[in-house]
Amino acid sequence: MNLYAFSRLAISTVAVLLGFTTVAHAGPPLICHPIEIGDAPSLPWVEFNHTGSTDYDLKNLSRDTVAILDSNTPVLMHMETLRRATIYARQDPQVAKELITRLQARAENFHAAGRPDGLAWFDLGYLAEAYKQWMGKGEPNPAAGFDGYSWVRKAISLRGSDPEMEFAAALITLRVSDSAHQDHTRKAMAGAKNDPLLARNLGSNFNHQTVAELLIATPEGRFQP
Prior knowledge:
This protein is 58% helix and 0% strand.
């Protein structure tokens, strides 16, 4: 079965399982599309287009983010926490640099200790790609020159089969149409059969289509008004 046929079947399965979709905004997918995490803990909610001050103290961002990431939560919770962290971090270049530096040191320290941690590499890679999608031209970007996707692939190789990581990799590679993106998409959709929260995310609405439909569309067919 080719990717298109497989994916249409998977999309239909997701729709039957859910019976509905939720509404999200169009824009950079790692930022503008909230990840469904149920009642799981994360950073305080913040709108993706927020630019002003909030009640949240940015000096606590690195500490709070790492505490959540270290709490043995599923990958989807990591994705949503890093999405919110990126929105907050954009308000202060020093905070943004501190967070990604801390995540890089965290991953490298596990590796140096002979205990390479897939989730630590995933967190670093996903944050780097989120920064690259959200930090505007002319803004300082501490992820400049980083290949976050390579770290996410490293995480997948360390972690083994993980449909939620495959989902993250599929979102990261949305702008390209290659076998790697198709493979990530196929594995995410296959894994959704046994992961209700992943199925919910694939069935959520993004720019007038489901996320699953977005993932299998050709690049020119994505993000259309």
